[in-house]
């Protein structure tokens, strides 16, 4: 510490290498911020050595997948002035300090986790589409209105053929702790077989396509092309977890919390254990419910795909910290947000177009998530409305 009584500074008493070793021992983001507030010399030392980014990487190694980090402000920044290269570098380091200090705090936040799935992108195969669509896996019950609710793979003659279910999360930036999968028990077949997989593995990443151009499974389209691996950059692949042949929501805790950069999760189902005892005697995998448990870092943090190669850029929106409050006011038709002069909404012509674009994307995803909760992921019709169940449906 700095001793005002004798004018001594810890940083001047030991070598820079020893000081760096001491600062790297700080594992709480709040401690690092407090250290940077001790004095100007301490702040220069913390900022100049990128300790906030180093701490972020230690907490969450997935941060290394970002090619760069940018700060996006609500109001346009003044035009650049002539600056020395040293001044430019100092400003860049200060910016990185702000971004990664706040990110480190968000990574260790104690906010409660929830199911983060927003939409189904597609499945590697579906036996009877759309009746056994991946959309059914968003319904927590295995039967709705006395009708079974589950996804079924296509049948295979060999037990080692894998399948996959791909989902879009409700945020570009989610910390995922665990994934839960419930195999389906065919209570309408002899012996009540459970169509689990032998094991599961989880992939996380982002689409290479620009935001807004990705597609989701619909009642008319199985969306098989949208799940091809070449359309994604996978930034994390989990180890394999054995799956029990039990009709329960099985929890697969990840070895560490993972930052899902881009909001896409693929559940890979490895190996088959159950043949259909009637009809075709082939191997199937059936899932009735899936959850991705985590918490969102948006809207303060968003992701932009920088080019067709799929490189990701971390976007920090400091003005979006109170965005949820503003959203609530907008949803209620209130103009009270104008009362706060320091953070009031400015005229659209003077605001940052990039800030508004990122915020609009967040609001759209948030609106879709709310609608999914209110309306439910699926609608079942009575048998009279659909003409009954087909006689050639193997799971009828």
Automatic annotation (TrEMBL):
Matches recorded under Pfam families: F-box-like
Acidic residues compositional bias, start-end: 337-350
Ranges for domain F-box: 17-49
InterPro entries: At4g00755-like, F-box_dom
Region (Disordered): 69-88, 330-350
Protein name, UniProt field: F-box domain-containing protein
Record organism: Zizania palustris (Northern wild rice)
Source species taxonomy: Eukaryota, Viridiplantae, Streptophyta, Embryophyta, Tracheophyta
């Amino acid at each position: 510490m700095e001793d005002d009584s004798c004018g001594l500074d810890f940083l001047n008493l030991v070598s820079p290498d020893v000081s760096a070793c001491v600062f790297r021992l700080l594992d709480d983001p709040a401690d690092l911020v407090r250290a940077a507030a001790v004095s100007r010399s301490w702040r220069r030392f913390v900022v100049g050595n990128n300790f906030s980014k180093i701490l972020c990487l230690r907490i969450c190694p997935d941060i290394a997948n970002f090619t760069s980090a940018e700060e996006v402000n609500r109001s346009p920044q003044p035009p650049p002035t002539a600056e020395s290269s040293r001044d430019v570098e100092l400003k860049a380091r200060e910016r990185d300090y702000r971004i990664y200090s706040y990110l480190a705090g968000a990574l260790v936040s104690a906010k409660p986790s929830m199911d983060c799935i927003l939409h189904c992108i597609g499945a590697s195969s579906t036996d009877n589409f759309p009746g056994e669509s991946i959309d059914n896996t968003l319904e927590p019950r295995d039967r709705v209105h006395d009708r079974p609710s589950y996804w079924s793979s296509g049948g295979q003659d060999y037990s080692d053929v894998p399948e996959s279910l791909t989902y879009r999360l409700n945020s570009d930036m989610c910390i995922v702790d665990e994934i839960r999968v419930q195999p389906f028990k065919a209570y309408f077949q002899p012996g009540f077989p459970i169509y689990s997989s032998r094991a599961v593995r989880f992939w996380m990443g982002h689409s290479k396509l620009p935001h807004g151009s990705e597609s989701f499974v619909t009642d008319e389209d199985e969306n098989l092309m949208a799940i091809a691996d070449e359309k994604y950059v996978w930034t994390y692949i989990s180890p394999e977890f054995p799956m029990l042949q039990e009709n329960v929501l099985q929890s697969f805790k990840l070895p560490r919390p993972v930052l899902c950069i881009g909001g896409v999760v693929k559940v890979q189902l490895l190996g088959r254990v159950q043949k259909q005892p009637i009809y075709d005697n082939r191997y199937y995998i059936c899932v009735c419910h899936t959850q991705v448990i985590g918490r969102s870092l948006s809207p303060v943090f968003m992701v932009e795909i920088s080019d067709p190669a799929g490189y990701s850029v971390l976007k920090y929106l400091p003005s979006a910290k109170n965005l949820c409050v503003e959203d609530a006011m907008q949803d209620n038709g209130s103009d009270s947000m104008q009362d706060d002069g320091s953070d009031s909404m400015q005229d659209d012509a003077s605001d940052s177009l990039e800030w508004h674009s990122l915020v609009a994307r967040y609001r759209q995803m948030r609106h879709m998530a709310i609608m999914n909760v209110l309306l439910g992921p699926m609608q079942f019709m009575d048998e009279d409305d659909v003409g009954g169940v087909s006689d050639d449906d193997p799971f009828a």
